[in-house]
Amino acid sequence: MTKPLNVGVIGCGFMGRTHSNALLRVNNFFDLEYQPVLKAICALEEESKLKAFASQWGYESYETDWHRLIERDDIDQIEICTPNNTHKEIVIAAAKAGKNIICEKPLALSAAEAEEMCVAVEEAGVPNLVSFNYRRVPAISLAKQLVDEGRVGKPFHYRATYLQDWTISTDVPQGGNTLWRLDAKVAGSGVTGDLLAHSIDTAEWLNGPIRSVVAKTETFVKQRMHAETGKVEPVRIDDACMFLAVFENGSMGTFESSRYARGRKNYNTFELNGEAGSLFFDLEDPQYLDYFQYSNPSTGDKVEDHLTGWKRIHVTNFEHQYMDRYWVPGCTIGYEHTFINGLADFLKGLETGVPAQPDFRSGLRTQKVCDAILESARIGQWVEIA
Fold first, then answer.
1. Are residues 9 and 29 in the same domain?
2. Contact, 180 vs 83, CB < 8 A?
3. Percent with pLDDT over 90 in the chain
């Protein structure tokens, strides 16, 4: 018998939809003690639009003020799907109210803000999660398993790219409900916080902490019309960022991100090269993990020469994490399922008392790396990660 968990979601944009879908579907696929109830949706939208969203997704009610939502006694959990500059205030209020909290990435505008948020949830003792959903792609989970099994061995190189092309036109405005990611006051940064935060979280999950970085950023379109003021204003977010990294384990990293890579829509890749083998993943082909085996992790013996080569693993078998919850082997799952998987892990953590990751402390760690990248780009020097 399941226990109802009353959830309030703040934000009804793209992320609000993904979180709503996960809340609706998680108990269809996972056997869990808790069953989310879509109690209320909250957003600063016209009432007709908010009411339509609530009806479409099955919410029992809606609010236009997140303060009222958090004050409600019938809300157990808050999910934050709002622009970055709102995260800190909402998290601190929700923590004081004793609510469970799931927050979209990046956790905050800065490491200083993220530290305040960590203190708030830890002092309140409330369960918390940052929604780095790509950890829940089965192929990336398999990559983590192979690393933990010693199949990559001593790491030498980590390289990541995250490329898109949706801001190339000079006619694209900044700001407003749709394009707030181009407004530095709201987003904090451009591709560093929006895209590279994902790459950094994945990299540190697979390959351990980053010790130091040196970075270069570029803003290709220097001025854009602001959707709210109607005036042409300077653009202060980074359109592109590239940085070098040194990991604590001594391996070297290269990272590149841009919204000006014509033809790339959500090209998120990583490759890890080690003494015993290599891994490669491409989010635009997410059901596959490429693996090169050089030696046997249990014996250290080199694989026979005529058998060496890259192996493409179709990550759909029941042995692969999460896949026994879905379809038969050979049938793939999609982007929306990563949010279902993440929510299932969070709810299982509530059930077992073993918190799901990445929690706010992990999100703070990613924020520290992002801050170091932007500082390095500003001063043109290597920066150590605190």
1. yes
2. yes
3. 94
Q: Are 185 and 234 in contact (CB under 8 A)?
A: no
Q: How many domains does the chain have?
A: 2
The three-class DSSP label of residue 238 is coil
Asked if residue 221 lies in contact with residue 239, where contact means CB atoms within 8 angstroms, the answer is: yes
- CB-based contacts of 173, cutoff 8 Å, min separation 6: 179, 182, 224, 225, 226, 227
* ω into 358 cis (within 30 of 0): yes
- Residues 312-336 pLDDT 10s: 999 999 999 999 999 999 999 999 9
309: left (phi over 0), alpha (psi -120 to 50) or beta: left
Highest-confidence segment of 96-105, 176-185, 303-312? 96-105
Q: Which of 57, 209, 198, 210 is nearest to 136 (CA)?
A: 198
CA distance 183 to 223: 11
Give residue-wise pLDDT tens across range 92-122.
999 999 999 999 999 999 999 999 999 999 9
307 Cβ neighbours under 8 A, 6+ residues apart: none
Helix and strand element counts for the chain (H, E): 11, 17
Instruction: Specify whether the CB–CB gap between 88 and 108 falls below 8 A.
Output: yes
- Taking the C-alpha atoms of residue 105 and residue 53, their distance in angstroms, rounded to an integer, is 23
- Could you tell me the sign of the dihedral formed by the alpha carbons of 359, 363, 364, 365, in that order? positive
Q: What average pLDDT does the segment 67-74 reach? A: 98
Rounded Cα distance, 131 and 298, in Å: 35
Domain final position from 133, 168, 194: 133
Mean pLDDT, the chain, whole residue set? 97
Domain boundary among 133, 161, 182: 133
Q: Is the pLDDT of residue 307 over 80?
A: no
Domain that residue 349 falls in: 136-379
Each residue of 187-230: pLDDT tens digit?
999 999 999 999 999 999 999 999 999 999 999 999 999 999 99
Residue 386 is assigned to a structural domain of this protein: no
Helix residue ranges, H only, the chain:
14-29, 47-57, 66-71, 87-96, 111-124, 138-148, 184-187, 191, 197-207, 335-352, 360-379
